[in-house]
Amino acid sequence: MESGGAREWLAEGLRLLAEQGAPAVTLERVCERMGMSKGAFYHHFGSVPKFRTRLLAHFEAEYTTAVIDAVEGAADLPARERLDLLVAEALRDTTPDLEIAVRAWAKQDPEAAAVQERVDATRVAYVRDLCERAGHADPDRTATLVYLVLIGGAHLAPPLPHEDKRALCALVLGRADATAAAPERSPAP
């Protein structure tokens, strides 16, 4: 868990990343936006590479771990209702620009790529687990489709509005629900 002061720097770093991309996340720009000195930056992070490492960890914590924790906090809900909650949580605070910026950074930087790969794997695995618990016949593909809607919709020009992403996820999950509820048919002779 980050200290209050470090969290503010990291939150500003993510805003800068979302607005201008990874190359813009420099010592000078972050300090300028924070209205703080380089000394204050070094007090919290020690170096720009350490800041970038913690920025990636902060992204993962805020936009993956915290979302999963919020859904798991509703453990009394059935898995299918938690899938709806997960979609709502995933769309609540994210901006398409941040997801796009992190993915672009991952194309240029091995550390960012490793974090992005872990984030994607964690997110898809969690959706898959909920799909399996909800009784979906093909939890792997259902989870992949839901994730593709949530992430891929940001890459359209213009980005798919959150309400459209929510509706598409409901369509995918509704079809998976119907498949799970349908009785198995024996093959035709």
Task: Find the count of extended strands (DSSP E, 2+ residues).
Answer: 0
Output the number of helix runs: 9
- Give the quaternary arrangement of the chains: single chain
Q: First CA to last CA: what distance?
A: 61 Å
Structural category:
mainly alpha
Instruction: Tell me, briefly, the overall form.
Output: elongated
User: What value does the Rg take, in angstroms?
Assistant: 19 Å
Biggest β-sheet description: none
What do the pLDDT scores average to? Answer: 92
The residue fraction in helices comes out at over 70%
The low-confidence runs, each spanning 5 or more residues with pLDDT under 50, are none
Topology as H/E string?
HHHHHHHHH
**Estimated share of beta-strand residues:** under 5%
Give a structural overview.
With 189 residues, this protein is an all-alpha fold. It has nine helices and no strands. It has helices spanning 4-20, 27-34, 38-45, 48-72, 79-92, 96-108, 110-133, 139-152, 162-181. The longest helix has 25 residues, at 48-72.
What does the secondary structure layout of this molecule look like, with pairings?
Blueprint: H1 4-20, H2 27-34, H3 38-45, H4 48-72, H5 79-92, H6 96-108, H7 110-133, H8 139-152, H9 162-181
Characteristic key phrases:
mainly alpha, 189 residues, elongated
Please give a quick description of this structure:
This protein has 189 residues and is mostly helical.
